[in-house]
Amino acid sequence: MNYKRILVFGAHPDDEQTMAGTMAKLAGMGVEVYVAIFTDGRDGYPEPWMKDNIVEMRHAEGEASDRVLGVKERYRFDRPDAGLVNDTATFKETIELVRRIRPDAVFNHGLHDRNRDHISANAIVLEAVGQAGEPVCAELGEPWDTLHFFYYKGVADREPDLLYDITGYAHKHLESRATQKSQHTLFKKTEEDFAAEIAGMRQENPAAYDRFWLTGRTPLRDFPDIPT
Length: 228
Ligand SMILES: [Zn+2]
Description:
Layout: E1 5-10, H1 20-28, E2 32-39, H2 54-69, E3 73-79, H3 88-101, E4 105-109, H4 116-132, E5 148-153, E6 162-165, H5 171-178, H6 184-187, H7 191-204, E7 209-214
Parallel strand pairs: 1-2, 1-4, 2-3, 4-5
Antiparallel strand pairs: 5-7, 6-7
Helix pairs in contact: 2-5, 3-4, 5-7
The structure holds zinc ion (ZN).
Zinc ion binds next to loops.
């Protein structure tokens, strides 16, 4: 992952945190880490009183997570939760984003998922990243060919192609999760639970890996062996 810039797509605010350890490690190595989130997460309220404020809450929580992980920029499409579709506007906005950021590698949802927004994100990004490299839609920026394309979740039919060593950064997943205060009910953890687990993990510093799957687009051939 010797990259200058990576772009991590997520259907909802916090999906990207699946690869929190990798993002934190790469950011610490000087890689520019960009996050792009398609929906506003407006359905993610566990209590009725949160309904009117949930979008603002999740925006702030996303920024808090970015500070924990060293993310350079968070781009928000702000499509409605449970309403993401591969329409022309979203497709073109994705092309424009890819051409502006010019990532060496893109990370996305795989196809094996029951969540409609995750499935849409898979289709939008796969198509738009390909088209971003073609000499089309010139008003959306200079064509940019993204060389490496990974899935970070949503692949159920095979073992990961790559295990990326995040030893020393394993606690970053919990740290980023802890910033999503509106989602603690979903995560079934309290702030005290997070604090205790983070402290334990920092002390223990366990060997840890993030899992990645290659898409058919990638020209990568030589991978390190997957530790067992
Ligand atoms: Zn999601």
